[in-house]
Automatic annotation (TrEMBL):
Organism: Nocardia nova
Protein name (record): 2-oxo-hepta-3-ene-1,7-dioic acid hydratase
Taxonomic lineage: Bacteria, Bacillati, Actinomycetota, Actinomycetes, Mycobacteriales
UniProt-listed InterPro entries: Fumarylacetoacetase_C_sf, Hydratase-Decarb/MhpD_sf
A cellular-component GO term for this protein: cytoplasm
GO molecular function term, any single one: 2-oxopent-4-enoate hydratase activity
Length: 100
């Protein structure tokens, strides 16, 4: 299990990587002891950072629903996350490429 400081540090790294568009090393490679529970703790901390920056949670999502994708990332069940308000676009809207 990760300690609270490591959880906060990983959340900050992910937050900064998204903001600067500079990738970081996969957290589970940096912390091989990381559990699914740790990953969700990092996600919760990251969501709080994003909300502190003005983003709002608008929905939820489920990922890795196929067994093929689960095997590809060595997990045995789907995962879940949040959708923020700025992830939604009206039909016909131009999606700014700079976000990616």
């Amino acid at each position: 299990m990760l300690d609270p400081d490591s959880v906060a540090d990983l959340a900050r790294q992910l937050h900064d990587a998204a903001r600067t568009r500079v990738p970081i090393r996969q957290p589970s490679l940096t912390h091989p002891e990381m559990t699914i529970e740790d990953a969700y703790a990092v996600q919760r901390a990251l969501v709080e950072l994003e909300k502190g920056g003005g983003r709002a949670v608008r929905g939820r999502k489920i990922g890795l629903t196929s067994k093929v994708m689960q095997r590809a990332v060595s997990i045995s069940e789907p995962d879940y996350g949040v959708l923020f308000d700025d992830m939604f676009f009206d039909d016909g809207a131009v999606v700014p490429a700079g976000r990616f």
